[in-house]
Amino acid sequence: MNLQRLITAILLMLAVVPPLVGADATKGEKLFALKLKSLFAQKCAACHGDDPEEIAGGFDMRSRQAMLKGGESYGEGVLIPGKGKKSFLYIATTRAEEGYEMPPKEAERLSKQQSLWIHDWINEGAPWPDDARIAEIQNKYAEGVTVATSGGLSDDWTNRRYESKHLWAYLPLNVEQVPAGVHPVDWFIDRKLKQIGLPPAGNANPRELTRRISFGLTGLPPDAAKTPSRAAEFERQFKNDPQEAVVRYASELMATSHYGEHFGRQWLDVARYADSAGFANDYARPNAWRYRDYVVRSFNDDKPYDEFVREQLAGDELDSNDPEQLIATGFLRMGPWEQTGMSVFRITRQQWLDDVTDSVGQTFLGHSLQCAKCHDHKFDPIPTRDYYRMTAVFSTTQFAERAAPFLKTENQVGFHQANTWTKAKIAAYTKQQQELNQQVSKRKKKETGNAKVGDNGLDPGDEASLARIRKNIARHNWELDKTKPIALAVYTGNTIVRNNVGNRLLAPADPWGKGYLEKDVILTGGDAYTHGDTVSPGPLSAAENLGAMPALAFPNGQGQRRLALANWIADRRNPLSARVMVNRVWSWHFGKGLAGNPNNFGATGKLPTHAALLDYLASWFMEHDWSVKNLNALILSSATYRRTSRHPNATELDTKYPQDDLYAAFQPRRLTAEEFRDAMLVTSGELNRQVGGIPCRPDINLEVAMQPRQVMGGTASVYEPDPLPIERNRRSIYAEKTRGLRDPFMEIFNQPGPDKSCELRETSTVAPQALTLFNAIEVQERALAFAGRMIKQDGDDAAIVNGTFELALGRSATTDEVKACLKHWERATQAEAGKKYEPQHYSSQVQRTVMAEKTGEPYNFIEILPAYENYVPDLQPSQTDARTRGLAQICLVIFNLNEFAYLD
Amino acid sequence: MNRPYNRFSPDRRDFLYGLGASLGSVALTSLLQADEAATDSPKPHHPPKAKRCIFLMMEGGPSHIDTFDPKPELSKRHLEEFSRGGEEQSAMSSGKRYFVKSPFEFVKAGESGADICSEWVHLKERVDDMCFFRGAHVESVNHPTACYHVNTGNRFGGDPGLGAWVNYGLGSVNDNLPGFVVLPRSSYPQGGAANWSNGFLPARFQGTPLRPEGSPILDLNPPPGVTRGQQRTNLDLLATLNKKHFANRPGRSDLEARLNSYELAYRMQTEVPDVLDMEGESEATLQMYGIGDAKTDAFGRKCLLARRLVEKGVRFVQAYAGNWDSHDYIQRAHGSLIRSVDRPIAALLKDLKERGLLKDTLVFFCGEFGRTPDNGLRGGGKSYGRDHNADAMAMWFAGGGTKAGHTIGATDEVGGKAVECVHHIRDVHVTLLHLLGLNDNQLTYYHAGRFKQLSQFGGQVIEELIG
């Protein structure tokens, strides 16, 4: 069925059979029934009628009569039947009258066309047909499509019409037949190029392609250390058969665990992974890493996407005895959340329900649902009722850090010493605490009835320290859970009120014992205390109706509500699910989605540029077991993917098609923050390629690490890196991600904050990036290690220089480049020869200054830094000769090259 | 409407000002002048009363009851039992609670007779320039969410800060300076740098923190041992090696922007310290701000720097002081905090006025919430403090077209709740924008499916505050 026919069919299906229309409608009646009734409702009613108690400016728009009366300011001049141009109602919408621009919000302003409707309607006498007549007219003349949903808060909304083009995502897939022997991706892409007469660019050169494929699938540069280099082999194969060469290389890369790490990281951007809970306490989530590894594992195992969906939404309901299933539900706990003594549980509970509903909507259904929390969706066919049907799915979902034995596949390397630092930290705090307590007991007798700070025998600062120490001991104690067989998970049961959550939450033996079953109601205006209609768990009704899905049953009460939702999302007939995932995968390869907003397939998201291709891929994906690896192979085997980023008519392309969505050439991109760091570690030879496990703590900017970080009750402990290079120098995905303490390197290269779902990375170019890449010790150390690696290579200086280019850029250096570098090396070595570097000394304690709450004055305290007791730095200048340090300058420059930073 | 993004052209200022590039760079002027035609500075929506804003952010939540809103009734009820009703009970309000009086004396100051606690020795001389507002309230009683709310208009992090919106709306006055500078304490507030984020606005609108200790901007300088000469030769090699790559990729303005960003960064290394250098200020000025006195030095520097920055054309400066979170020992804690900011703030107001800047510089003082009239019975009622209160707060304005010498709105007899001229913080935001010539309803940015604005869904101008 083609799209047009389908829409027609749906129109027929949904339209009420038109009753006999009496006298033919006049132009004015039609304008009102078809345009203005909904326009007034949308743009004016909020201030001029929805709340009869508060009518702005006294102008009531609920009836013709009321409108004729006008308002406080313009009285009967507002609506003068027959005189559109003079009526203030019209004038206000043209924004000609200063101070009376209507609607007041610029973003809400009416189009010229809409203003003219009002003008013409008034000219026609401003007729106001009754509801029955309106229905008649609408049935006979209305354009656009009505959509059956679970029902809006008003009939106007329920019966409103949508431009059919905005409903694309809800319609069943429309799969075109692709001629045999043609690559489907190319067929769809080239069809459009042919239409506009733009020839596509040719193949990229194989060296560029190896980098593109390697970063694209693993987030790492090609392994140039292999001999003979894989890149060289690829080049040979590519000459014979480009498609086969790419497919072979791709499958090789997808067989490495680095594939899952890279795809996992991209999924975690959407899921908002972090190792801490955010907000005032920013407590550790010591077991979150198991969810991170679950995601990596799932991509590596090529878990069918429908299963991946079911497990993350309802793993516990599928099989609560399978640790993997419990770990998977960590997805539901990824958002920032906390319950402190200061907050009202009911509110924080609702915050989570809102958060998870919106997050599931964005992640799996390509819909931000937040808008429908307070009112029926302004643009999409999502009534508030649907929103609360979705939150009802989660209203029996409860937090627990559940027992979940370790799987064989989980990396437990380093468990035995994993808590060494934490324990040392606790021990150091405990010792300080004991000393302070001793002082208290010794001097307490001095306390008088007239209590003042310090009367317990402590200096004010020490008193603040006691509170700080107590808090940090509690914080670190919770962190010890990271090596325990516990999953950050959920269970299904009654809601138990928690006043203060500062420790592991256990699942009760009887989930339906304590607590209460939440009422599933519409919260009017989004207010947790204002109950509207009762609802039952359910999905997005528009997708069900427009997508012609059979209605799946959703249980109530103690039933498995999430499993029902998971099954509904993972259903092949769900029009959204496969499209959403396929579009994500496409965007990961091409830097943009076929539909431009991977988290928003609604009317406000960008329409798909190649809808037919998207549908084809979605269908293909499901037919091929929802396999992401298969999908990758399909996409990478296309000529579209292999194209060079340099189009022969680049200028024409840029000026005529600046939005660049034709895929005539490949869109180059900058490395992500993580890729940047990982690529430097690969190049310097320092990367520890261990997969999975508890989070590591790399070196970060020392000033940020030591900067006091306020948490509730005091100052959090200093950020201390892992003591050994092998522990620190792991892939960035494994770096501990604390919401309140971002690694400035990551942040500055556009790693998104973990509080909001990130549909696609952004790239900004700001001067401080240059400062970081040139000056940061973490980068300087990579350059020195790179030099240390190269200096040991055989061959003369020119060969060494060439080797650095091979390793870092995947190509040989040109003669000019070698020449320039040799000269630079010589000069830098001379400069370095005159310098003497002392071995870096690391103190295992630091004095910090913070403000004491009780005195409002700064105080100093000593914090013990156990990590620095046996800290082994990366290669240091003091350990190298001038020649190595000279070469390190070249390495540093190479890390800063556009060629290193960008993929063609 | 947002400006559309072109394939390869990051907005010019994205790289100039992200995190505060090119502070006061003279060389940069010429670089930018060449491009002046391309700079289309947005215009205010209506004639502004204020051209710039200094936001004194009193982190932790200063008590209105112990600063600018005296409650004699509390002295009468001191240590009488207090009870709070309603559904929204949190653990904070559990246990027995008692009214507690302010430990401070209050005076009527200035010709306007404004109420001010006598600890404000210097500020009480300036009350005739100030407009106190007692009607404001927020929603959240948790520090990070309340801080986000006051700073970004949204309780949850991730939205643009006030200064980001103002710069988005007005553009920069001085192309050599970032439009939004933050002067944080050495410990960042709860919620961290998201308090001055650009949110969904382009990166150039992000607040530029100038750190009070260590390197003012991270990695501003190379590690010890690396000389400036060495950096220069490294940059030259970088330029040489980049050249061929760039030549093969004509039209790639993203690559070109990146090349330029290195030269800018190099210049920043000398320019940033120049801006921070207070050398040119007279001894009298330094003294007036309390610089050199251990009690007032930290905030004195921030206030003086704020004046220097707005003088140079920075639109929006936010200076942090705190932590005002005095749950106990409010006498001691608030006492010493007041002393640490009193002289600097008074000096700032005086200095701005004498330089003719106060009339169009809006100074705004507030915390993330106010404090309760009640407390637990700490130290037998001797070491009491106050807890978090979202229903009333300490807030005042000066200059920038606000109603000098007035106190607007009121709280109830114990200071528990704003009851007169009551306005949600969003209305305060709308008013701040209004004074700066911006209409909150018109200052929108399309993101994630809708036009977003500072007030979230619109608010109203508090006319009573406008002079």
Characterise this structure:
The complex is a heterodimer of chains A (904) and B (467). With 904 residues, chain A is mainly α. In chain A, strand 8 and strand 9 form a beta hairpin. Helix content of chain A is 45%, strand content 5%. Chain A has 5 domains: 3-142, no CATH class; 184-260 and 578-668, no CATH class; 273-411 and 485-569, no CATH class; 415-471, no CATH class; 673-903, no CATH class. In chain A, helix 2 (27-43) packs across helix 5. Chain A contains 37 helices and 12 strands. Chain B has 467 residues and is an alpha/beta fold. Chain B has one domain: 3-Layer(aba) Sandwich (Alkaline Phosphatase, subunit A), CATH 3.40.720. Chain B contains 11 helices and 21 strands. Chain B has an 8-stranded mixed β-sheet, sandwiched between helices. A 3-stranded antiparallel β-sheet of chain B has the order 2-3-13, with no helix packed on it. Chain B is globular, with a radius of gyration of 23 Å. At the A-B interface, helix 27, strand 8, helix 31, helix 32 and helix 35 of A face helix 1, helix 4, helix 6, helix 7 and helix 10 of B.
